[in-house]
Design a protein that fits this description.
mainly alpha
């Protein structure tokens, strides 16, 4: 995936990989059974994928957000971060956002501002501010 992005001109310093969060097998199995199937994910396999993601990030020189480790720090119960054992809950999304946003800000802070600051947009005729046909 990273090699493809590099091949189409996306530099590695613009890429952020995110490891999967840990899997709560008991909760996910319950969801699977409700759908008429058996457990189709294992926490150990998700952990292997997370480790591979970290390795790829290191090899490719990209940033990585390690949700796998972050959500299991100090042996904490991570189930509240997951809505169904697999997908992030609102609390899990908050954790993701709070750790991802600083990485994004660091990457975009040096980019030029192409559009005016929102307070500088003329309310009556925003096109004048946005299209460069006038000051306001």
């Amino acid at each position: 995936m990273v090699r493809y992005l590099q091949a189409v001109g996306v530099p590695e310093d613009r890429v952020i990989l995110i490891t999967p969060p840990p899997l709560c097998e008991a909760a996910w199995e319950k969801q699977c059974l409700m759908q008429g199937c058996k457990l189709n994910r294992l926490k150990s396999v998700v952990g292997e994928y997370a480790r591979a993601c970290l390795q790829v990030a290191q090899e490719c020189g990209t940033d990585v957000l390690d949700l796998w480790t972050l959500m299991q720090r100090d042996g904490q119960d991570f189930s509240s971060y997951l809505s169904d054992g697999l997908h992030l809950s609102p609390k899990g999304n908050e954790v993701l956002s709070s750790h991802l946003w600083p990485l994004i800000e660091r990457k975009v802070s040096s980019l030029p501002l192409l559009l005016p600051y929102w307070r500088d947009v003329a309310e009556a005729k925003p096109e004048l501010s946005l299209l460069g046909d006038g000051d306001h």
